[in-house]
């Protein structure tokens, strides 16, 4: 592949591994594009609102817009 470092891009991901616990209500898997726009708290509120409304794909649609 092309070296895009000169454009500020890297093909090496930042990865965080966390244990999944039964108390988790949602898991948000996202790229830096989402985190550049939303804080963790904002993303959690969107996911919780969508879950409460029974719309599994609603939060995805909101975050992608």
Task: Describe the fold and architecture.
By secondary structure, this protein is mainly α. The chain has one domain (5-64). Helix content is 37%, strand content 0%. It is built from three helices and no strands. It has helices spanning 32-35, 40-52, 58-64. Helix 2 (40-52) packs antiparallel against helix 3 (58-64). It is elongated, with a radius of gyration of 15 Å. The protein starts with 31 loop residues before the first helix and ends with a helix. The relative contact order is 0.11. The mean pLDDT is 78.
What is the distance, rounded to the nearest whole angstrom, between the alpha carbons of the first and last residues?
29 Å
| Count of spatially separate domains | 1
Amount of beta strand: under 5%
Number of helices: 3
Estimated helix fraction: 25-40%
Low-pLDDT runs: none
Taken in chain order, the helices and strands follow as HHH
Structural class: mainly alpha
Number of strands: 0
- Average pLDDT: 78
Tell me, what's the shape? elongated
Q: In this structure, how is the largest beta sheet organized?
A: none
User: What's the Cα radius of gyration?
Assistant: 15 Å
Domain PPM-type phosphatase: 7-54
Pfam family, one: PP2C
InterPro entries: PPM-type-like_dom_sf, PPM-type_phosphatase-like_dom
Protein name: PPM-type phosphatase domain-containing protein
């Amino acid at each position: 592949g092309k070296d895009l470092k000169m454009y500020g891009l890297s093909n090496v991901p930042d990865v965080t591994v966390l244990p999944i616990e039964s108390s988790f209500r949602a898991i948000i898997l996202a790229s830096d594009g989402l985190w550049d726009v939303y804080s963790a708290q904002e993303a959690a509120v969107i996911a919780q609102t969508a879950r409460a409304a029974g719309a599994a794909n609603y939060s995805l649609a909101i975050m992608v817009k």
